[in-house]
Amino acid sequence: MIIHSVTPAYFLYPPCENSTAKIKSFKGGFLEGYYEGRDFIISRIISTDPQYYINPDFTPGNCLKQ
């Protein structure tokens, strides 16, 4: 469903209280994801450098070993 509104999205979709999303920083930005055991599973990348988006190490669903 697409909602066309001038109301900011955070008013329409309040954040979940029991969210398990975690943020990890790296040299070029941040990674959002969750922990599965000791491994960090990437959900999305937050960076201003486009080179990190095509780096296969930061692909969503990829596992970072601790």
What order do the helices and strands come in, and which of them pair?
Blueprint: H1 9-12, E1 22-26, E2 29-36, E3 39-47, E4 63-64
Antiparallel strand pairs: 1-2, 2-3, 3-4
Defining key terms:
66 residues, mainly beta, 1 helix
The proportion of residues forming helix, as a percent range, comes to under 10%
Q: Biggest sheet, in brief? A: 4 strands, antiparallel
> Mean of the pLDDT scores?
84
DSSP summary, beta strand count: 4
**What is the overall number of helices?**
1
Low-pLDDT sequence parts: none
Q: What is the structure about, briefly put?
A:
The chain has 66 residues and is mainly beta. 6% of the residues lie in helices and 36% in strands.
Can you put this structure into words, describing what you see?
The chain has 66 residues and is mainly beta. Helix content is 6%, strand content 36%. The protein has 1 helix and 4 strands, in the order H-E-E-E-E. It has one helix at residues 9-12, and strands spanning 22-26, 29-36, 39-47, 63-64. A 4-stranded antiparallel β-sheet has the order 1-2-3-4, with no helix packed on it. A hairpin with a 2-residue loop joins strand 1 and strand 2 (29-36). The longest helix is centred in the N-terminal third of the chain and has 4 residues, at 9-12. It is extended. The relative contact order is 0.18.
